[in-house]
Each structure stands twice: as C-alpha cells, then as structure tokens.
Amino acid sequence: MELVKNIAENISVESPDFSNCINVVEHDLEITGIETTVRFHYLKFDGNKQPMVKALADTLYAYIIDYCLSAKNRDGALTARQSTLLTKEARSLFRHPEISDDSPDKTGEAGETLLYFLMEAVLKAPQIVSKMELKTNHKDEVKGSDGIHARWNEELEVVDFYFGESKLYKKVSDALTSALKSINDFHDIKMYEHEFNMVTKHFKYADEAVKHEISQLFINGNPGANVRVNHACLIGYDYKGYDDVLSEPRSNLISRFEGELLSNAEGLVKILQKKLDKFEKKHLVFDVFFLPFPSVVDFRNAFNEALD
C-alpha cells in the first residue's frame, strides 16, 4: 500500500484555478443516519457583479486533455504542437449539442467535467480512469458512474474510491432524486464490479507498480478490506440569488449573497435528509456538492461554446 498512499501526486487540477472561479461556504449543517459530507459552493462574482459562468467554463476547457486522455498515453511536458493535437483529440470525444430549456442537454458532459474538477480540487482525489477515451464512438454515452477517483485516507488507512454522479437540473429536488436513483441502480446491477475491473484494466497512469497495488485491493471485482466506496454527487441547480444581489454595493455583495445562500441551504439539507432516510443502502458514504447557477442551461451552453 506504500505506493498507493502517494496517489495524490497525480492530481492535475491546480488549486488557484478552483479558487479563481468558485467560493466555498462554511456551515455546520449535518446529515444523520448515513455518512454524508455536505458542501456548499457558488460561482464568484466578477468586477461587474456578474457570476463567473464563462470563466468557469473556460477553466474546465483548459483541463480537457487531463480529463479525457490517460497520462500513460502522453508525455508529461507537452510541446505546443502536441498540446494542439491532444486538445483536438479530447474535443472530439465530446458531443456538444445545442441546448435550450425545450431541448436540454442529455449528455451531462459539462456537469461531469465540473465534477472531475471538484473531486480533484476539493477532495484531493485524482481521476484514475479516463472513461471518455474508452468510448468507441463520440456519440456514445459513458456507461456507469460519471467518474472514478481515489485517494488515500490517512485517518482510516483505507483507499477511498469515489464514483461520481453529476446532476444539473432546474430544481434541486429533481437533481437529488435522479442522483440517488442512479446510485441505487449502480449497486443493484453491481455496476461497481465492472468499474473496479476498469480500474485494473485501464488505470490512467503509467506506473505499473501502483497499478498492481491497486489491483490487489479488489476481490473478483468486489471491494476488499482496504477499500471504502464513496459517491461524490454534484447537484447543480437554478438559483435566482445571483440576480437578487445585483443592486447591492460591492462592499456588501458577498455577505448578503452568502447569508441568503446559507438560509436556503437549511432547506436543501432537509430535502436531502428526507431522501436519504428512504435510501436503503446506508453503508455507502456520500460527498454532496451543492452548486447553484444563474441557469444550468447557460452554464452548459458556455461549456459547449468553449469546446467549439
């Protein structure tokens, strides 16, 4: 396990890129009955008091090589020419459809890329399988979870595996319902066995010794004694709070916005608690990222414009 303990060295997302676009809101709200960490974030405001939707989308675009392509299939330090070619290859893996309220984005790729960004920047859990490059056709959906990440848990002395679930909906309740249904189905059909096998077959990095150590953690596709299964959920939703503070002077903008968001957060945690009370698989561990957008449709469009 000595090599796996250093897996965080493979994180590609740089902390300043996260903190340039996204703020963290501290709180003391808790979930009972199932181990869950609830996180509240929001988009930073630019100098004109506009939420930084495009800046976030462009930042995610800057990571598409890291997100889409295995490190073992590319050199560490890329030349300008290599970077151009790999960016083109990575872009070709996305479907970037036209999106509107009447024609929503069924691919979920903007949310999945954002969740990868959050898992690396916040959880310090590097992506360990590049699922995008395993698609045989760019029009295909990626099967299973929305991302596979892992980190060494120093306190428990286990490897935390994170299966991602990204849901961007107009309403929080709909996003939570969809996420929990997907996770329930993931376990009912034993999709985790397939995903754990993917880790051993398609480990993202070139280090065969680490790959071997990780493969020893599983028993016929099942988690062994040193593996803990976690689900990282991104819950993105429409939030009018960004518009509500436009008339505030800059000196009071953040405190007013965060105050309103925290008041709203209490209700969101109650909704999550009710849904988890009915969720049968109490042995699982959750990390839930709540991230409000002025419009999830506008965020998806901004991401697709960055790809184009």
What characterizes the major β-sheet? Answer: 7 strands, mixed
> How many domain modules?
1
Instruction: Find the structural class using helix and strand composition.
Output: alpha/beta
Number of helices: 11
Characteristic key phrases:
308 residues, alpha/beta, seven-stranded mixed β-sheet, two-stranded antiparallel sheet, globular
Word description of this protein:
- Strand 6 (218-219) and strand 7 (222-223) form a beta hairpin.
- The mean pLDDT is 92.
- The protein has one domain (4-307).
- It has 11 helices and 9 strands.
- The protein has helices at 15-19, 53-61, 64-68, 80-91, 109-121, 172-188, 191-201, 208-215, 241-244, 250-277, 296-307; strands at 22-25, 36-43, 127-129, 148-153, 158-169, 218-219, 222-223, 227-238, 285-293.
- The strands form 2 sheets. The chain has a 7-stranded mixed β-sheet with strand order 1-2-9-8-5-4-3, with helices on both faces. The protein has a two-stranded antiparallel ribbon with strand order 6-7.
- The protein is an alpha/beta fold and 308 residues long.
- It starts with 14 loop residues before the first helix and ends with a helix.
- The chain is globular and about 55 Å long.
